[in-house]
């Protein structure tokens, strides 16, 4: 068990693990660990109970904003949001939803790199709870086993369906691919737009954020360049 996971299980409360104040974090997009910070009691209640609580609290938010929830258009929103949070956009918080991965023997003896590019994903910024919209490009070099292509997409989608920062999303995908494929030879590059940057705050609509992880053979120039040129970012 890694250090931060041990800490997660021994410290009673989330607040006690935070070492930065909200003012220090401000609008900066920093992440505190590779693992998503989760409470030890994260799954002590059922999904049904979570939806009921979120519905209740979201109604409070809407009413606090002054909205009249007797309006036909608004009255179903708290329930809709709760269902969407638990079953869809934050379903990747629950390890029970992690895609199971079947590996196949590399019978073709293909030993080049396999690149799955332009995997479109939607995530949400954990600092503002507004969308991150992007594309992930992932690659691996087989260590003797191969993975079904759709599983690469599913792994990206699973980690995207959490409140995220892009750096952590990149690392979580890379680490999971290394684990399931049993190789260090993994590359992950993510190019994404953060709506908290483009639609509010600094209101920069043209920038996007690129993060990358290169492991094993991809730390060497040849493999890294092949990957980068294949996804259209190389020389
Ligand atoms: Zn944000």
Provide keyphrases for this structure.
alpha+beta; 235 residues; binds zinc ion; 8 helices; GTP Cyclohydrolase I, Chain A, domain 1; 20% strand; GTP Cyclohydrolase I, domain 2; 5-stranded mixed sheet; single chain; globular; two-stranded antiparallel ribbon; 2 domains
Describe this structure in words.
With 235 residues, the protein is an alpha+beta fold. It has 2 domains: 3-97, GTP Cyclohydrolase I, Chain A, domain 1 (Orthogonal Bundle), CATH 1.10.286.10; 103-230, GTP cyclohydrolase I, C-terminal domain/NADPH-dependent 7-cyano-7-deazaguanine reductase, N-terminal domain (GTP Cyclohydrolase I, domain 2, 2-Layer Sandwich). The chain has 8 helices and 7 strands, in the order ααααββββαβαβαβα. Strands 5-2-3-6-7 form a 5-stranded mixed beta sheet. Strands 1-4 form a two-stranded antiparallel sheet. The N and C termini lie far apart (41 Å). Residues 1-18 have low confidence and may be disordered. The structure holds zinc ion. Zinc ion binds at residues 29, 125, 127-128, 194, 196. Zinc ion is lined by residues 29, 125, 127-128, 194, 196.
């Amino acid at each position: 068990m890694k250090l931060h996971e041990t800490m997660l299980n021994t410290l009673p409360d989330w607040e006690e693990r935070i070492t930065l104040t909200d003012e220090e974090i401000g609008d900066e997009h920093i992440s505190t660990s590779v693992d998503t910070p989760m409470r030890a009691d994260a799954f002590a209640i059922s999904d049904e109970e979570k939806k009921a609580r979120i519905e209740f609290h979201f109604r409070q938010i809407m009413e606090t904003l002054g909205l009249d929830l007797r309006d036909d258009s608004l009255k179903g929103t708290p329930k809709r949001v709760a269902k969407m949070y638990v079953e869809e956009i934050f379903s990747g918080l629950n390890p029970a939803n992690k895609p199971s991965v079947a590996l196949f023997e590399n019978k073709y003896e293909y030993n080049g790199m396999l690149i799955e590019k332009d995997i479109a994903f939607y995530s949400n910024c954990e600092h503002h709870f507004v969308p991150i919209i992007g594309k992930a490009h992932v690659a691996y070099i087989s260590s003797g086993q191969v993975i079904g292509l759709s599983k690469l997409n599913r792994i990206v989608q699973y980690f995207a369906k959490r409140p995220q920062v892009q750096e952590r999303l990149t690392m979580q995908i890379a680490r999971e691919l290394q684990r399931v494929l049993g190789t260090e030879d993994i590359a992950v590059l993510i190019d994404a737009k953060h709506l908290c940057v483009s639609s509010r705050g600094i209101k920069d609509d043209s920038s996007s954020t690129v993060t990358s992880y290169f492991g094993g053979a991809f730390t060497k120039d040849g493999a890294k360049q092949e990957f980068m040129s294949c996804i259209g970012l190389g020389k």
